[in-house]
Amino acid sequence: NDPLIGALVDSHQNKGKGKFIPWIKFFAFPTAVLCILGFVNVSNFAYGARIAYMFITYVVYEIMYTCVSVPFGSLSSVMTDDVNQRTDLSRFRSLGGTIFMTVIVIAGPLFLYKDKQPVPSHFLIMAAICAVVGLICLMFTSHWCKERIITEPVAKEKEKLNYLDVLKAISKNKALLGVMLSSFIGIVGAGMVNGLNTYLFRDYFGNVAIMAVSGMLSVIWSLIAFIGTKFVAKKFGKKEWIMYSATFSVVVYAILFFFPLENPMLFIIINGICYLGVSGFQVLVWALVNDAIDYQELQTGKRNEGIVYSAYTFFRKLANAVSGSMSSFALAIAGFNVNEAVQSEAFSGRLWKTYTGLYVAGYLLAVLVLKFVYPLTKEKTAEMLQNLSDKRNAANAE
């Protein structure tokens, strides 16, 4: 779905209204409608009809959503080629997602459940609220955001897109391969660790309630990462900061592997500090994708923003799917027994080793991939952008 829609976006002819804005405008409304339809109460339908309704509405919603998300994600690459502004766009995108998810996690259960039971009509109401808010925000985006980097004359007849040739070029795009592989490994590793959180607080620390404190502090950690990332990324470079800070967190967790903590509050604080270390993977990743789009243009002379961006989002979705199932394997490695209401002390010890070990292995491997595969250091990025600027100026002069 993602790469195919990315190819369709790239084949869209710019007629003076932009390459990506028209897609966002056109598909924002059907996406909102499908978001609402997916939560309509069809409990009076026959079982087969319910399954068919669920399947069709969800699949069509995913298609409509991708028709918005791919041009939306690609849009920032043509809004500016300034390194610092791209960092800001990536930071604000990450902050927006964090704020919205925090609101949903806190307010959602209070509204969606009554006496610990789900209320179907409330799900439909919340879906409608989210759909309307999303539609309004996308309309503001379409009106306020401007596509400033145009590499082809407006209304020029485009040559037919050769999808296989673009895929071959992408396979040689080291910047894209680096950010895709490092993100995939980081997401899978983080997903496996996060999947063990409840068990760690319940079976190791013996205090599930204190997880709420961890959740509240996560907002503070996110704000610190949002504010601080701008300055450190500007000073050290995006790739460099992600590597340095994530390596610090890996070292801390390697120490914790050998020296377990017994105080849950101390663990929450140390884990929060380590979150700041690995936050670069979440906060700066979209800026890295934009740089990978520029790298594609430098290598091939064509940007192919839609396909490059959608290739990355495909790997993110794949990583989320893998991490969901791998958490169960992580529990098995720790020796979790589904037939025991209270786990053994041996499981508690193995759980700590599994938790910290997966953290170290996942992020260390992600850092190594970024170091040896992703080629765009701070200096290389500046050099690439200057070369592209020279090429565009020469083409315009001709």
Describe the structure.
The chain is mainly α and 398 residues long. It is built from 16 helices and two strands. It has helices at 2-10, 21-37, 47-79, 83-112, 120-144, 163-171, 174-195, 197-204, 211-236, 238-258, 264-278, 280-283, 285-300, 305-334, 345-372, 378-397; strands spanning 113-114, 117-118. A two-stranded antiparallel ribbon has the order 1-2. β1 and β2 form a beta hairpin. α2 (21-37) runs antiparallel to α3 (47-79), α7 (174-195) packs antiparallel against α13 and α13 (285-300) packs across α14 (305-334). It is globular and about 75 Å long. The mean pLDDT is 88.
Overall 3D shape: globular
Classify the helix fraction into a percent range: over 70%
**Topology order in helix (H) and strand (E) letters:** HHHHEEHHHHHHHHHHHH
Strand order of the largest sheet: 1-2
Sheet with the most strands, sense and barrel status: 2 strands, antiparallel
Distance between the termini: 38 Å
- Contiguous uncertain segments of 5+ residues: none
Q: What is the tally of beta strands? A: 2
Q: Helix count?
A: 16
Structural class: mainly alpha
* Rg, nearest Å: 23 Å
Give the integer mean of the pLDDT values.
Answer: 88
The proportion of residues in beta strands is under 5%
**Assembly of the depicted chains:** single chain
